[in-house]
## 1
Amino acid sequence: VTNTAAERHPRRGGMAASAQVARPDSADPGGLVADLYREHALALVRVAILLVGDKPTAEDVVQDAFIGLYRAVHRLAGPDKALAYLRTSVVNGCRSVHRSRRAWFQRSGNGEPTVWSAESAAMAREDNRLALAAVARLPRRSREVLALRYYLDMPDPEIAETLGVSRGTVSSTASRALTVLARDLREEL
Amino acid sequence: VTAADLTLIEDRLRAAYQDAAGTVRPADISPQPPDASPSGRRRPGSPGRARLRVAAPLAAVLAVLLIVLITVIIPNLTGASRRPPQDHRRPTATPLPGGIPRFSASIPESNFWVDIRNSATGRVTDAVPVPKRPGGTWCGLTAEAGGSFVAVETTPGDPSMVYRIRPSAAGTSATLTRIAELRNTGVTGISVSADGTWLAYQDLYMPRRHPSQLLLGLENLRTGRTAATWSMPLIYNLSGLSVDAAGNEIAVSAYYYLGNGNVNAALVQHTYILRPGGSDTQLQLLPGISNQAGPLALSPDGKTLYEVLQGTGLSTTSFRSHKAVTFELAAISTATGKVTAVLHRWRGSYQNFVPMLALDPAGRYLLVVDRTAMATLDLRTGRYTALPAKLSPAAETQSHPGWYGGGPSYPFNAIAW
């Protein structure tokens, strides 16, 4: 697993900082999308896998987000909004995946909802597995807030913009989620 | 919950996220962005954009109408002869004596779906999302009578979940039903009786405070009760498991290495017949049979065991040897352990040896899978018929065939255990 320092700490060069988005000629949407893809596709797939649980679906969600960007790039207020658009698209795409999975299970009337199922490499550490299992039991919005905050290190205002909620909602959601996690994992602490 | 607790949780979350996200490696990502369709990449400020929005769908509708006019309406009006309609959905495989092959099931490597595949065409007709708990794996998949499949998901430390996957008649819209929980923790192989009542399984049970155990179990799926368990030496690996129709007998073949399991390591393989009513819960070696190839199937009445044997008479062999040997498909009496008939012979090597056997619920046809090739053996006439359809090469090393009432199906399990 290759995690560069920039990937681990997006504020120091990763994808979270909007100011670092490439700003190619706005008349060349292909170039803008290509640059964004080169810089952020990996991080976006990694966020998506945290939200949907499996790599093929995560890759599909991110591909769809970039295709959507091709079509929407001229509606954006500026190139610097493109990354925010991608993040929101990925989060929405992950929600759609969960909706379709839930619909399938309700239709079949059996089984239990699909939960986080990381690749085996991530499951190697028991404490990480327990933490992710506890996260998987949280409500959808809590999972999204935690992934954006603690994987991408995004500040609350950017999380709020990505999820389309207020900053206060982000803060209170994160606080509640952490409390629940702390209780769930109390024995491990 | 204290502030220190919250800080600790935040650190754990970061670590867990980094680990999980790190499963996506840079090499996994395509170097090029997805290619958006040209129609989706409109030029900004194009003067005809508004008109195009109307004109494009209109042109599409007109084109469809034109095609319908040319291909359907005009020939009907003029009475022109035309070819009989072809149903492309119809399987192209040669019908089998016991029925037509219908569907197989497989669990792809992503471990998140069960693919239902038309046995004749090889096409996936449905992809059934399957629930999986964190750290869980799908460890067994087999067919039962009536065209459905049974699969087991296992998660360390928790009960294993048994599911039935029932495809619709067309192979689409399969339903998934959780039918049982196994108390044990590490199921590594399963077999289901033809009517789906009895589930035989091997379980690597690893309690936290006690030594690990390798167990064989027999579960009644209708009542949810465990009928019997047996213990196995931990060195054994499962190579064949079959249960008869009444749940009175289980046939097991298992092997272990003499050495460290490398290319030159010799293999010792044994077959056992287990009876739940017996007083001894230890394995009882089937007399007279040892060092055979391993795949097996028990007749519905439990009297005959069909097993692939190594016919060259070597006492030990390497599991990965390239050396050509003769394999024999034999019928064995479970009462005496004696070979009563050799039904088929072929040359092969252990290196390329992945044959699997499965008996249809009536006990007449034996499905033989050898790597990607499949054949049926009519036990009444002795006719050996190669099937036109092939298994996916990607699945050959974990193939696990099964049968159901309408004919053979060949589910294979792409999960390593």
## 2
Amino acid sequence: MTCPDDLTLELWQAEALPPTDAYWLAPHLLACADCAARLDLLGRETAALAQGLALNGGELTFLAELDLARHWRPARSPTVTIWLGWLALVGTLATALVWTLAEPELTLGLELANRVGLVMVLLQSGLRLAGAAGASLLTLATNPLLTYAQPALVLTALLLLFLAPRPEPVLARSNELNSRGLP
Amino acid sequence: LGTLVEQVQEERELVRLCLAGDETAFATLVGRHQVAVFGTALRLLRDREAAGDVANRAFFKAYQALATFDPDRPLRPWLVRIATNEALNELRACQREASHTLTGEATEIAFEQLPGAPDPADQALAAVPAEAIRAAVERLPESLRIATVLRYFADLSLAEIGAQTGQTANAVGVTLLRARQRLRRALVLDGVNADDLS
């Protein structure tokens, strides 16, 4: 067998030679002193290239200072965002429940708050809450890490709250019947 | 081999935790592969700050695309591939290539017509200091530099490099052979003589 060309040796060294070619080449490489020397040089060149390209001390220090393990992440934690999604869903459902059961008491509470000047404070708080909820929903909707299930859940809950016919409050109905003297 | 298998299994578990939203698991993966990702970007861009930005971007993109990653395959080549793409985008955007790289036919002819130069094949690249090799690699044309960095720095197989560059393993072998010949010639032009150094 004649000595292989440089490309064949390159592929042999990179273990990229087809198995049949490698099978025929192996005995020659063991027997041929010239090829053994060429392979040895190739191996030393490969080692020299790997050593030449390896990060040096200054580069490793620079990398350590970058602290990529801490700084790769986006500003908002996706884990927190996931919990915000569930929080929004639970909050929405809880609000709907409270609204359904206790509207008269809330109305009385608002009248009392109006008398002592707390309505504006409550309105401002409400607006901030709505803004925060909107921002969370937007983050959820645009975050590619999340499945579509959670934003869909939250949006469904909101749609139910605003579009579905509001159930008559239990206590309000009871009060109305009492005021009419009906059982 | 046992340790390698354990590492692969551990990495697979870390990927699964990442997909479940565990950021600390991804931070562990970043710690493990940051040298390969940052180093690949650095050797392609030749700029530490830019390489740092690219590595950061590459890890974030990897995190975003983790659901598309096949956990039965090794993670490092996938991360290196993302980093390489990011680095090449950065290179093209900044157009640094023109001022740093000896490219084009004129350079090829200059190498070929070098009068009285010793046969490059006789130059033992193996005996040249690391700094000279790094400088010579930095001046390689882009296609040769990519293959050289991915093979000799990132330790990717020819098939993995081919997947990155759109070549067959054989074609990558040819590219590496050409890169090696270029490096030998470049070192001769730089006055680095293996006989003088040894």
